[in-house]
Amino acid sequence: MSNATEIIIFYRYVRISDPKAFVARQREMCEKLGLFGRILIAEEGINGTLEGSLSAIAEYESWMHALPEFSDLWFKSSPGTGDAFGKLVVKLRNEIVATGLPKERDIDPNVLTGTHIDPVQLKQWIANGEDFEIIDMRNEYEYAVGHFAGSNNSTMGNFRDLPNIAKKFDHLKKKKVLTVCTYGVRCEKASGFLKQEGFEDVYQLNGGIGTYMKQFPGEDFLGSLYVFDGRMTEQFTKNYMVIGECTSCSSKTERFGNCAWDECHKQLLICMNCAKHAKGIWCTDDCMVGAASGVPVR
Ligand SMILES: [Zn+2]
Ligand SMILES: [Zn+2]
Known about the structure:
The chain is an alpha/beta fold. It has three domains: 5-92, 2-Layer Sandwich (Alpha-Beta Plaits); 103-234, Rhodanese-like domain (Oxidized Rhodanese, domain 1), CATH 3.40.250; 256-293, no CATH class. The protein has nine helices and 16 strands. One zinc ion binds at residues 246, 248-249, 251, 271, 273-274. Residues 259, 261, 264, 266, 282-284, 287 line the site of one zinc ion.
């Protein structure tokens, strides 16, 4: 045993009275345990992902569980790689996931959020041919490497585009709608936001896509799960189909690069071959023109 490591991912929307002090406590504990990763803390809660040795992660979890407001905190766990994160970042923020919602339209998931359903319930909906629509609340590049069959792509560039997506799905307002995201945190506000915008029957996938894939590997979800660490994608079975396509040559790939225009730098799927041989790959013609003109637009 070993150098085995574990990656955990967790969040909770709960009032934190002294976020600044909590940042310091978290940092101190993570440093003591040699954990790497990223924790965001705000008055509204905590959102984190960490990697460490099995014993260090176990110690961190029991330390958190000893705090009254986190006594039943759910740590979703995956096998580590040893280098999923280059460092430890613990930060104070206004929101634990930036939504782009103005203060007066902000969502408190403890007050307004979609009904949580577990993977087993979703499996039943699918099996029973239930009439519902999945709205994938992740970014476009995440959707590009993997998504539920038949789900709706939000086409967000990042989650701060959330205020703009209600219009896009206006035609689903009266339908049964399920929001999904990686491990659940984005859906807490995204599903509440849809309700605020007048969507009548809104659900969210408890534990997110990762939890579903762990329970039903290789089923219903096509491709692999984008993750925000050195792994880039997470797989739950060897028998999965690569659905990502290179932006330049359309060959199947799960390799990410960036738009060659400095002002854009958006994440794109770029296959190894194109990365080696193309002079630059841009997400759109606009970006190619922008790069050629050298004019900073944003
Ligand atoms: Zn290519
Ligand atoms: Zn671009």
